Amino acid sequence: MAAAALTRAAQLWSLLDEMAENEPQAYRRLLQQQRAEAELFCALPEPHLCLRARPAGGVGRPLFINVCSWKRVPAPKGPADPTPVSAGPLQEVSGEGDLYSIIDIAYNPDVLQRRQENPEKMEHLIHLTLKFVEERCNLTLSHLYTIESFKLKGSLETMQQRLRGRQRPTLHHSQNTKKELTLDEMLHTMKAEDCSNASVLLKEEHVRQPEGHLIEEIASTETPEKLSTPAYEMITVKDANKKSLKIELRIELPKVSSVSECDLRISKDDIVIEVPGKYKLQLELPELVDEETTTAVFNKRKEILFITVLVAKPYP
What distance lies between CA 148 and its chain's CA centroid? Predict the structure, then answer.
């Protein structure tokens, strides 16, 4: 595989050199096109607004919907066409005395910008979003909702990871692959590979809506893993003056033998611990923390992970 990749790269550079020498204008147009496509592919979702909804009847944990702007989600082809949308998984989040669900929904920036200028159209998009979440997640939500004062529930990094997914696309090679490819064929082949830090290519998947096919989901190729939520205990350590000093987290991880099996991600306001194929725990932290002070110790005999992080010092 490595030798084949090096061979393709050498062929590509040779074809590009030949094109630069013989067709300089076409070469410049190609570079501009590739740069624009790379910027689009590497674009990250950005928070736009956050909705707070509740199950019908008011019973159950609240649901936060992060409505995001993402250049990788295409705009509608025309005024009468469905609005493409990309959705992350529905997750239940447990914090210190705080239980809620969260889901991330992304639209093309132009879709949100046009509706931001027209309150009636924005309200219509919000109701479509709620209906979409109901059907996608098999929920029944109240028609009442709140637009929060903050744009994002949780951390930016975690939202982007949920929307982008983690699976990398695989390039399938035919046994009859030609040894030499044209420039167009070479570029088409390389586009199928993930040559950047982006995690997944998007594909279209139609979701039939009763309101005249108003939303078209752009779904990740990733199949969400069903991971168990481990038992845990989180406490905030305070001094004699009730000032928060640090946060201690104790997580029980049966059948885990080493801390190297654990994937730990922490931001100033949340933490995610994942053991691939076994466990996943996402928690909102009760205080803003200094991520650089995080320590993690795994007790192999007791199969318990201990995490400690200092509370961030307030700005003077």
Answer: 21
C-alpha dist (Å) from residue 121 to 52, 72, 124? 19, 22, 5
- Taking a C-beta distance cutoff of 8 angstroms, is the pair 265, 309 a contact? no
pTM higher than 0.85 = no
The 3-state DSSP class for residue 240 equals: coil
pLDDT of the chain along its 316 residues, tens only?
A: 556 666 766 776 777 777 777 787 877 777 777 676 666 667 889 999 999 998 887 778 899 999 999 988 888 887 778 889 999 999 888 765 678 899 999 999 999 998 888 888 899 899 889 989 998 888 899 888 999 999 999 889 889 988 887 433 333 333 344 444 454 544 544 444 433 333 222 233 333 444 445 666 665 544 555 788 999 999 999 999 989 999 999 999 999 888 778 888 888 888 999 898 899 999 999 999 998 899 888 888 899 999 999 999 876 5
